[in-house]
């Protein structure tokens, strides 16, 4: 825990800085001037020394892609290693805020500075907006001292970047760290191939929920797109149709093609424990690796971090099953 003295504010777009257009709210530049004007008008607000950098293009976070995660990672590493910043505040839209927090948690493993993501449900300047409260609250945290790693701050709550999810679309307390079951052996030491120093590449990933009527053809259609990772959102404790041999064969084929197939629970407060039910055991036997109590955001971000580093299937399965930064334990 240490106070940050030289903060980078990385502005990626999102509602916090949006302005009204004829088509609706849209990302807008010039946020640094608005932020400085607000701080000048509120001298009581704590703040470290800071500099703002705008990403290009500025995004509505509904348009967030893997390439944007990689660009954010590069900007953060450059700010820390070349420009001497000792903390980063990332301003981001709320639609994919939890996804980006999770992805960056795995892209920045080993980077010895605190990184906090925040945003707002209403634009800065809108009546009764939460924007300045979230921004000022995050600045206060940097002034007081934060642990290294990626975290998400929203509506007065500081959450792990790998435990948070967006639960509400029309309330200021939109995010929460769900009490999902935590389990998993903590990795004693992470290899350099998974540190922030390791360049990553985009990866073709897919998420598929289990539901009554799911067919083997759906899985095979995804395989034909060339996916490298498939995240299955299973029922309850990790179950799914266990009497559909064609579906089970399709999942086995995925592993034989080198696809990392992992399972999480689609329950908001759920965890995968395959052996409770035969239906879970039969899914496990197709080669699925358990995601334990990971959220969708964390599991997808972890899959991206592992496969984007170029790991082979066996190595990716090994690290997916271990806790790397608090996502499982």
Largest sheet: 6 strands, mixed
The CATH architecture of the largest domain: 3-Layer(aba) Sandwich
- Give the strand line-up of the largest sheet: 4-1-5-6-7-8
Mean pLDDT: 95
The count of helical stretches stands at 9
According to CATH, the fold-level topology of the largest domain is: Rossmann fold
Write the topology of this structure.
Elements: E1 6-13, E2 19-21, E3 24-26, H1 31-41, E4 49-59, H2 66-81, E5 87-91, H3 97-107, E6 114-118, H4 131-144, E7 149-154, E8 157-160, E9 164-166, E10 175-177, E11 205-209, H5 216-223, E12 229-234, H6 245-256, E13 260-265, H7 278-284, E14 289-290, H8 296-307, H9 313-320
Parallel strand pairs: 1-4, 1-5, 5-6, 6-7, 11-12, 12-13, 13-14
Antiparallel strand pairs: 2-3, 7-8, 9-10
Fold and architecture overview:
By secondary structure, the protein is of the alpha/beta class. The protein folds into 2 domains: 6-177, 3-Layer(aba) Sandwich (Rossmann fold); 192-320, Rossmann fold (3-Layer(aba) Sandwich). The protein has 9 helices and 14 strands. The strands form 4 sheets. A 6-stranded mixed beta sheet has the order 4-1-5-6-7-8, sandwiched between helices. Helix 3 runs parallel beside helix 8 (296-307) and helix 5 packs parallel to helix 6 (245-256). The longest helix is centred in the N-terminal third of the chain and has 16 residues, at 66-81. The chain is globular. The protein starts with 5 loop residues before the first strand and ends in a 9-residue tail after the last helix. The model has no long low-confidence stretch (mean pLDDT 95).
